[in-house]
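User: Working on a comparison across species. This one is Amylosucrase from [Collinsella] massiliensis. Can you predict its structure so I can line it up against the others?
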Amino acid sequence: MSTRRKKTTQPNPRGSKAAHPAPDAFDERLARHHDELRWLYMELYGNGDMFAELIHTMRYYYDERSKALRALDAKREAEGAWYRDQKMLGMQMYIDNFAGTIKGVEEKLPYLERCNVTCIHLMPFLDTPLDKSRSDGGYAVSDFRRVRPDLGTMDDLAHLAATCHEHGISLCMDFVMNHTSEDHEWARRARAGEGEYMSRYFFEANPAVIERYSRDVPQVFPTTAPGHFTYLPELGQSVMTQFYPYQWDLNYRNPRVFNEMMYNFLFLANQGMDIIRLDAVPYIWKELGTNCRNLPQVHTIVRMMRMIGEVVCPGIALLGEVVMAPVEVVPYFGTPEKPECHMLYNVTTMATTWHTVATRDTRLLRSQLGAVCSLPASYTFLNYLRCHDDIGWGLDYPLLASWGQREVEHKRFLNDYFLGWAPGSSSRGALYNADPVTGDARFCGTTASMCGIEAAGFEGDAAKMDVAIAQDLMLHAYMLTQSGLPIIYSGDEVAQVNDYSYVEDPERADDSRYIHRGRFPWELTERIDEEGSVQQRIFDGLQLLERVRREDPVFSAGARVWPKDYSDPAILWIVREVDGETLHAVFNFSDQPKTVWMPEPAEYTDLVAGTNEEVATVDLPAWGFTWLKHIW
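Assistant: Here's the predicted structure for Amylosucrase from [Collinsella] massiliensis:
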């Protein structure tokens, strides 16, 4: 049964509120949050009229929320932390690359169900400039209420969401809060000199102020988009553009910006979105005299957003993109009493994982996992090996320095390794934002290419392919062992390799991230049933791992998890324990076979092989792993 929303017009925020004679779910939820929400809003803006407008419009979007979505809200409220269910498995994809259009994605749901996917992360699909050189891969949004025409319509999106819900699949989307495209209506009216819209951005004519920002604020893309402001000759002023010149930073010191962006958020939630990814969260608030990163006002905004969602659409979850050091990431969870984001990306662990692949040394990864596992159980991370973005080497360099590794030289080694230039490397990829002055750079490539599948296939080396496939599956098993929401990048399930054709497209040639944003190779799905093919070995291997994770209680969200010390630095040992059952997940990050001694000889169940036997030692091949469960 379709739950497509009826079309409505935007409410008049200054209109009178309709009468509601009896308290309903909205009133009850608002009563729980009203005082804190008002206190935070007034602390930030001191504007009672704008707060009253916010509450009025929240009511409007609650009333507009479909019966099906309200029922889902109630179900998820009763369940609590639905996104932590061990059956959750995400897949991230670009709509056009995967299936052409939103309707195409809906047609491909049987394939996604075969992949065990329960959450689809649709990469940016809102309207953006047709010129790809000004779209930033869809993150330069020109209209928050309109789908990119070549992908479909809002009705298509709502229909996809409704169909997904019928199949037990949730949808995740990106909400770009920090900036708009220069083609957005607000920006066009600001460029025309309308003061109300200029106040929604940061315009500056004083060179001294611009110089001070440039001195205090780190650059996001110092090589491809240097500077913090873009000069507009028609106005004789500059506008703040911390990411790219065509992306104008929004001024959240203006309550009109906050309110309107919250209305956009609620509108999108009402299309059936389940997880809203908050893009570039740490950058939202700008303040002269600071580095404009992770300011206290950012946390106020995210906390208010969490409460607004819990009042209007409590079935949705906020996923924060915070690409910062671990000490700066954790605060975005808020506190158990005053939570902010429901989930955060496990960025540092992802980067440290690839560091471990290159160095064959798990000590830094053990330290990172130990820190993550020590956090409150309610803090949920999204775990992944690869995504749409580059890999930045934001590692714990003070700890590495204590082991004699220097930051600049180590970053150079990592990039050389994954380019395939270092001895012992079969990886392939490309650098991103390489800085010739500092020697710093980030890295791009698909999981399969970074594991050596591309190189082995090109060389026709069967032995090298065996090692590459083992490494690929071992890394996925390690990712699935962690607590949180695991997500696979579309194409990884069929070992999709790098797409170098982007260099032939003038609109994409300067952005090497397109190397892992190639079209989904549907022809490879025809080989997943071909015994012995790379696609069959990867696909079936992932199927087995996903089934075990989905069904065995040791992978439940309530399990205690910690990394175990072991004498061999090439061995990563993760323990999961729940209700008298203990999982020993042991991974060999080296090219050499290893023999691992269990804590004590006992009967274990090999969850991958499906066998039960007395085990004292385990032989792990190069890049091998084991999942052994012991029941006390």
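For your comparison, note: The chain has three domains: 27-177+255-551, 195-247, 554-631.

User: Helpful, thanks.
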